[in-house]
Amino acid sequence: MSKRDYYEVLGVDRSADAATLKKAYRRLAMKHHPDRNEGNTDAEQMFKEIKEAYEVLTDPQKKATYDQFGHDGLQGGMGGGGAGNFSDIFGDVFGDIFGGGGRGGAQERVYRGADLRYNLEMTLEDAVNGSSVKIRVPSQVSCKKCNGSGAKPGSSPVTCESCHGAGQVRIQQGFFSLQQTCPTCHGAGKMIKDPCDACHGEGRIQEHKSLSVKVPAGVDTGDRIRLSNEGEAGQNGGPPGDLYVHIHVKEHPIFTRDGSDLHCEVPIDIATAALGGSLDVPTLGGKINLKIPKESQTGKMFRMRGKGVKSVRGGLQGDLICRIIVETPVNLTSKQKKLMEEFQETFATDGNKKHYPKSHSWLDGVKDFIEDLKN
Fold first, then answer.
1. Is there a single domain that holds both residue 270 and residue 353?
2. Second label for 87, Cα 20 to 30 Å away, from 17, 194, 201, 290?
3. CA distance to 120, 195, 255, 328, 347, per residue, from 291 (Å)
4. Rounded to two decimals, what is the model's pTM?
5. Same domain, yes or no: 308 and 362
6. Per-residue pLDDT tens over the stretch 97-148
7. Number of folded domains in the chain?
């Protein structure tokens, strides 16, 4: 298959200068880098093609040969289709673009800003229904006075005298020659002789910024929302980081959430549990009447279809699951105690087995267990 024109690969005119080529290369290399397109062989091939085009068009001799003879004139010099191995490619992108130095050595290092995290506490109602929240985030932003250069307006950074702009220095130790980050400029390749009095040479200043976060309906604790380019400012013109808003749903006085379902406990009195009845129970959309059948026991579950949560990831609306709790009366008056005693005596004629089957079943089990221990 024939190769594409190198100028077409980078999307530039044939008259493009070095700065235009570099800008196009950075943009495309970031887009198609394999780390951002894991498992995408087309992106990996495109990445190699971009790198090969950039290497040719930024080398004056190769560019002149290509402009005159095209791809045929480069046969043998480019290795037939790959410019260096994959580690070379990786080094170029994270070196040239993010400060590794690249082949040129004297290029200004560019650093992406750090990502930020913000913990957002929400009520269950806001998490289920969605909301728009105002947050205030501390962040490092580009200094407006020096436009992020760190140098006093009217001046500019100068090439580091120790590494001559390479960002690295070579140290000889016996038979070995070691290369390490320049201790003078800390790898930047440049020094600021006259720092900006606003940012003190850092190129960034600490500020608080207010943002509006649109929280989609159905989020839950552990979900996060990414706000692109709202992190800390980059250095030397690098891109800003991202802001990640982590959701934490506060404990609710009535409901607990389990995925798309809501759970709540419903206390009822002994008379309603024995005779049956009805009562209103709350949902996130209002009250709903719950029918209690006679002879209901603690732990009995009632499922209200579609009264739960619709997850942010889609799917059907969840259910509301009510669990009955039969409440024992407390703080009885003398009259109430006497009535309870009389009421209890009415069960004594048949030993309570008819009215309290579970209790007698449990007691019979205990007796059998004790007898087994004796034997």
1. no
2. 17
3. 39, 76, 19, 20, 27
4. 0.57
5. no
6. 444 444 444 445 667 888 889 999 999 999 999 999 999 988 778 888 888 7
7. 3
Q: Are strands 168-173 and 243-249 parallel, antiparallel or unpaired?
A: unpaired
Looking at residue 64, which CATH number applies to its domain? 1.10.287.110
Measured between alpha carbons, how far apart are the two ends of the chain, in Å? 90
18 and 80 belong to one structural domain: yes
What angle, rounded to 10 degrees, do the helices at 41-57 and 18-32 form? 170
In a domain, 267, yes or no: yes
Report whether 317 contacts 310 (CB < 8 A): yes
Of 110 and 306, more confident? 306
Distance CA 81, CA 43 (A): 15
Helix (H) or strand (E) holding 302: strand 301-304
In terms of phi and psi (left: phi > 0; alpha: psi -120 to 50; beta: otherwise), the region of 100 is alpha
Tokens of 111: 């650093």
Residue 65 belongs to what domain range?
Answer: 6-97
Phi, psi at 271, each rounded to 5° = -65, -45
**Domain closes at, from 43, 65, 97:** 97
What are the residues facing 209 on neighbouring strands?
Answer: 137
